[in-house]
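Minutes, project check-in

Agenda point 3 was the complex the collaborators sent over. CS summarized: two entities, 557 residues total, and the question is how they sit relative to each other. Sequences were read into the notes so everyone works from the same version.
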Amino acid sequence: MKVLVPIKRVIDYNVKARVKADKTDVDLANVKMAMNPFCEIAIEEAIRLKEAGTATEVVAVTIGNKSSQEQLRTALALGADKAIHIETEEKLESLHVAKLLSKIVEQESPELVILGKQSIDSDNNQTGQMLAALTGRGQGTFASKVDVQAGTVNVTREVDGGLQTVALKLPAIVTTDLRLNEPRYASLPNIMKAKRKPLDVIAADSLGVDLAPRVQLVEVNEPEKRSGGIVVEDVATLVEKLKTEAKVI
Amino acid sequence: MKTLVIAEHDKGVLKPETNKTITAAVKLGFDVDLLLAGENLAAMSEQAASIAGVSNVLIADDAAYANQLAENLADLVLSLADNYSHIVASATTTGKNFMPRVAALLDVAQISEIIDVIDADTFKRPIYAGNAIATVKSLDSKKVITVRASSFDVAPEQAPVAVTSVAGKGSVGLSEFVSEEQTESERPELTAAPVVISGGRGMQNGENFALLNGIADKLGAAIGASRAAVDAGFVPNDMQVGQTGKIVAPDLYIAVGISGAIQHLAGMKDSKVIVAINKDPDAPIFQVADYGLVADLFDVLPELESAL
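CS then shared the predicted structure for the full assembly.
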């Protein structure tokens, strides 16, 4: 079984995003970038499926400028067999990304596509579901457990009230939640080996997808700041303040 | 121009997120129809018909929608989409699951987790874990929108409007419900509770979360947790408040032994009043707290319980 793992290069999760002075966007100049944390979990899950003998090949794919090849090399170092870079300088939306990925799904025919549930920059949480719609596949989103059987995959999903398990016909799409697994680190020998693994580059505009914007970014602002409050001496003062000043109890 | 809202419900109860999402939908400026899809909808449809701002309630009674499977629900919404300019649902795990599927099938973008409606095309939404707020304008003719319910008020009641049945479409045959594990709790739901008390890594273990019970009982509070407490295995993930967990905005939020990582603040900083209890005076949580208490939580919690 072939597993396709789309990944995204994003701001490192330890870095606090700052809004540009002209409010046109978030300032990413000279900011540390990394693989989106949910995508790391997706790669890890695919590699575990390969180690368990369920998957035969793991293909990582990303869409972005030349720098995003760094994240593909990371995926290869972690254990992916080959990588595909869909190159573009444009800032694409989830729908564009899902359409481009659907072209790769056509080419590669993976039985399973595993994606992160959302990227920590745009926080959209859309691409996996859209890819499932465009490829006519079932979707197991926010997965905390993935169990591949003959012809089906059982996915346990993190939902608001607890956990829900669904059975999807293969081929299917899975998106990862945080508790699915704990990603490994790439070892130095594997990082060296990854440099020789195949990495194909495809121009995004060669795939026949309309990449015209559907959403216009009008403005980006800092969130309203909460002004810090006061430090109280003891529990009695706290309860008193909550009753008489804040009037919330 | 007309808006379709897909109701969020569970176990025969309409979720409070639905009322708040109606408030957002009304702000778009058009008539609002509310779709209820599932089984045994009679009691809920009465409740739905009484939410102010709803013009019509549509019910699709079909076993295919009993567990809100995204593939089937998206297929149903798609069959109704021609009549609507705006399709709206709460950004719950259900809405987040099926709505992007609807958007892709309609070949339009989705605007995720809006926190404000500027006009029928323009919305505000948080990005980068709430560290920036984007104002975005949809260029598509049809808008698919999910709503961060905690940013909108509960819609008031009205005299009930008409309820109409629409044909179910059955299962599209891609997915089946297997099982669910619901967290049993007598307490209010995190996203609906007027008071939330959350524990962090400072709680040290799962047993110590019991120290929050008495306080929660007295305040009618829901109990939450930081991601650190969930990752450490103290409590289950559905208690997680934060960017990757639940977004809450209660009247009172009490953070106990929580340092205040960006990802936690993203889930609670819109609370009306925030109390922080932490023994580290430099913990970032104090920068957003209205009232801070620098003390050992194990001394303070029993004291707080008896003072209430």
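Noted in discussion: Chain A has six helices and 13 strands.
Follow-up: revisit at the next meeting once the mutant set is ready.
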